[in-house]
Amino acid sequence: MIEALSKSIFHLSTASTSYIIRILETGHAEHVYYGRKLRDAAAAVSGLSEKRYARAGMGTYTDRNFTTLVLDDAKLEFSAEGRGDYRTPLIAVSLGRDGERTLDLKYAGNRIEKGCVKTNGLPMPQAADPYNEAETLSLIFIDSLRHIELRLFYTVFPSTDTIIRRSEVANLSDERLVIRALSSAQLDFRETGMKAITLTGAWGREFEKRTTELKSGTFISESRRLGSSAEANPAFMLLRKDGSCYALNLIYSGPHRMSASVTEHGMTHVVWGINPDMFSWVLESNETFSSPEAVMTFSENGKEAAGDRMKMFISTSILRSSWKDRMKPLMLDTWETLRFNARENRLEELAKGALEMGCEGIIINDGWFGTRNNDRTSLGDWHVNTQKLPSGLTELADSIHRKGLLFGLWFEPEAISVKSTLYKAHPEWIIGRDGETNAEGRHEELLDITRYDVQDWIITTITRLAELVRLDYLRWDMNRHYSDLYTLSGIRDYGMYAHEYASALYRILSEIGSRFPDLYIETSAGGGARFDLGMLSVSASISPSCLSDPIERARMIENASLFYPQSVIGTVVSPSPNSATRRIVDRETRFNIAAFGILSYSVDPSSFSRSEMKAYKEQIEFYKTFRLMLETGRFRTVEDGNRVIWTVSNEDRSTILALYLQKAIKPNTTAERLVIPDANESYDYRVFSRSHMIPEREIYAYPEESECYDIPGDALKWEGISMVEQLSGIGHHEGMRMLGDYSSRLYIIRRIDK
Fold first, then answer.
1. Per-residue buried b or exposed e for 469-501, using 16+ beta carbons within 10 Å of the residue's own CB
2. Looking at 455, 484, 517, which one is the last position of a domain?
3. How far apart are CA 652 and CA 418, in angstroms?
4. Does residue 291 share a domain with residue 406?
């Protein structure tokens, strides 16, 4: 709900939060408050607004009639250059031949309207009922001397306690305007000692959680790549000293930056949006440019509660695939088994095994096209390799469909191999001057998808194949970032390129999605290098990493789940030892971890013994029984150390699943407790372990365990179960738990009626 409390005061309220903006006498927008919902916002404004009886020392006042207002020492809705605000600007420009950088933007009006105000081609959230749920406030600021207009948009989603922000610039002058920076949102706090939680990492080490205390100076989390990157996910949190938390994000898949500065006046100044080092935008007279949209939510109850609100918003307003409210398909991926050797007889064997396991489809990964026998050739040649598939792709797809399975294909549509027929036909389509002298990544170049002919070629190529094979599942991958920036696409300024690239990517995927509304689109970028809300606007889920090691994946799932719902996080059960880390992890633990997301397998069922097939079938039967809760339930990290404990629960907490993962055996341990904070205090529960099937050759060493506990909910929540002891160096006793290194149990906790 948006209220104009007066001509100069605006109150944006959700179910649980309030956001107040006040237009000052000088025409600047003061950020008054963002936090827990106020009982009487109108009455609170006077007390919350900052008083100005004296000017900060050495401060530059922008208005000679108000000499105590120093913009550098004010909580503002946006900062700009040239009038005494020396903090990181939300907007920075260069105007005309002289390149003037000063901006003196003053309030010129507002508009309140129902629904979301459309932007120029970028993804935007959608309310469940856009006309009754969402409202948008736009504030207009004009520099009357330079004829530049800034519009700030605030869209309120009351039921998910979320506010969406973006910025828009209009060039009303007769001169060329270059936007040097335009962030999506700014938050100013009159406090220090806040902490930033960010997700950092690299390929194979995605989603490393970092907590940084914000001290004097500037902390930056950014991507300088073509995508949002594994190095710095766009999501972040701000923790206050009182334990309250802001969960923040960006609906964007390009280079981004979050800048958090603690100023000399004891303020924390946070700005986030497009990375200004990777961006500039040329506006001719009467042209406009709009930033991506930033997402903001708040909870006084800490980071998990703030994260829950962010996840609810993603589930209801970002996801828009036809799979949004459907259980995700459980697929068998051929990569770990076949690599590039995707031959017809082996694919038929895997499809038969997938069906017996209980999988719902099969993804033919790399190697099915062109002359692709390794990663040095054929990207761009998206036609069947008849040496490997002599009956053709259509016959293979028909055979898989006849088994009742979904048919999926892996593509890397943004990439091209120099050794390909496509490169011979269109060498001008790559980014860079030529494929012989460019720097390479993974033996491949990138297509210049900012060109409309390249966009149309990708759409047409995938459309033709999708129709030919009745494609059910599309895995869209991208395995390198750009270099050698040079293009023949006619872009006016190379600072525009990364943003144009992201916009082109959205256009391609949106068009494919609209042509095939039931097609399941999963995106990946060398794993988690584009795990962001922009991609979730045009796909059903994202792979968080190429690395399938279950222990590393456990960390990724846990940290990604702070911001993103389980229903968008792809997981996988792969062979052991792991192909990348050589780590050995037992079969049941690999499943227990992967169950907390969208489960898939990359194993070879044609090689299973009867007992192995039985074990995998039981895993899948269990997952299907609890799939709704595992994808959409409330996820919690209870403990993270040598013991990793997760829970996921249904809405009324009558059923809870708990993962107990032990990273290393500790000798001479005795009693342990398992506490379940999400237990309902008024219930009585029975807690028992999912059957942990032991390989036949090891049964003699692992006698049957016996774990079943009955306990009242309040005892389970506050004190926990005293668990059966583990074997830890003092000999085996009947019924003991037998956990080794990287071993786990999955507990089912159900309400019982006495």
1. bebbbbbbbbbbbbebeebebebeeebbbbbbb
2. 517
3. 56
4. no
Name residues whose C-beta falls within 8 Å of residue 359's C-beta, 6 or more positions apart in sequence.
330, 331, 332, 405, 601, 620
Q: What predicted TM-score, i.e. pTM, was given to this entire model? A: 0.96
Tokens describing residue 406: 């979904």
Q: According to the model, what pLDDT value does residue 131 have?
A: 53
Q: How far is CA 483 from CA 224, 414, 437, in A?
A: 11, 14, 11
CB atoms within 10 A of CB 65: 8
Distance in angstroms (rounded) separating the CA atoms of residues 368 and 573: 22
Domain hosting residue 228, numbered range? 2-318
Sequence-distant (≥ 6) Cβ neighbours of residue 725 within 8 angstroms: 669, 670, 671, 672, 733, 736, 737
The 10s digit of each residue's pLDDT in 59-82 is 888 888 888 889 999 999 999 999
* Residues 343 and 308 placed together within one structural domain of the fold: no
Bigger pLDDT: 303 vs 493: 303
Tokens encoding 480? 């390198």
Structure tokens at 244: 């309250």
Taking alpha carbons only, the member of 292, 296, 229, 236 closest to residue 260 is 236
Which of 517, 540, 566 is the last residue in one of the domains?
Answer: 517
Same domain, 17 and 67: yes
Partners of residue 751 on adjacent β-strands: 685
CA distance 627 to 391: 36
Predicted confidence (pLDDT) per residue in 97-151, tens digit: 999 999 999 999 999 999 898 877 899 998 766 556 899 999 999 999 999 999 9
Residue 753 has pLDDT above 80, yes or no: yes
- The whole-angstrom distance between residue 675's C-alpha and the CA centroid of its chain comes to 29
**Are 337 and 463 members of one domain?**
yes
- Torsion over CA: 601, 603, 607, 612 (sign): negative
CA dihedral 447, 448, 450, 452 (to 10 degrees): -70
